[in-house]
Amino acid sequence: MSPVFGHGRLRLYLLKLLEESPRHGYEVIRLLQDRFLGVYSPSPGTIYPRLARLEEEGLVTHEVVDGKKVFTLTDKGRAELVDRMDELAELEQEITASVQDIAREVKEDVRQTVRSLRQELTQMAKDINQTGRRENRDAWRDQKDEWKRQRQQHKEEWRQQKDEWKRHKQQWREETERWQREWNRIWAETWPLSGPPPGHAHADAEFGRMLADFVARVQHEAAQGGVTESALNECRSILDQAAERIRDALRP
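^ that's the sequence the OP posted. Answer follows.
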């Protein structure tokens, strides 16, 4: 299993995938393969038992369509997603970082392969100059043709990986925007529940939206650059100062 999905996080991500759309087990496996550029490929023995356990807990339900079990998130499952929204946002950031690492590793593998081929060709050229035998010249031509073929193959593989990475990057951008909208919606619905004083309902709702927009922007920036320990401490100090100023502004 991918390290990203340790400590029960695969269970949370399965709920998230089913929240997007009803899916059957194979479709869930394919989605996970695509989002990890094929490096992480969960087995049916990993996915199907977890889907069955989620159904036992009342978080998902299923119906048989064309002979396949199609799983759908229940209201109880959606409630758990809302409760664990912060954990899910953190998981999304870790998945994004993991996919970026995979793309860098693929690029480095291609570079290393081309570098090795160049070294082999250089050594072969030296051998041909030393021996001068026809067999080596023929071998040189054959190796040169093979090198050209492999170089073209690696170029094509890298181009495909690059296109795949662009597609995943766009997919993560859309996913981030969708969760930001969902965050704003949930905040706007839950913020006024505290019961603002009479005549203050509009201002209270507007204040809730301002806070939701602020949180969404900060989460977006954190997803782009990551959060170090020193940055976290500095942000904590800034937020404490901001809280003091907001409290002073809200006092009558």
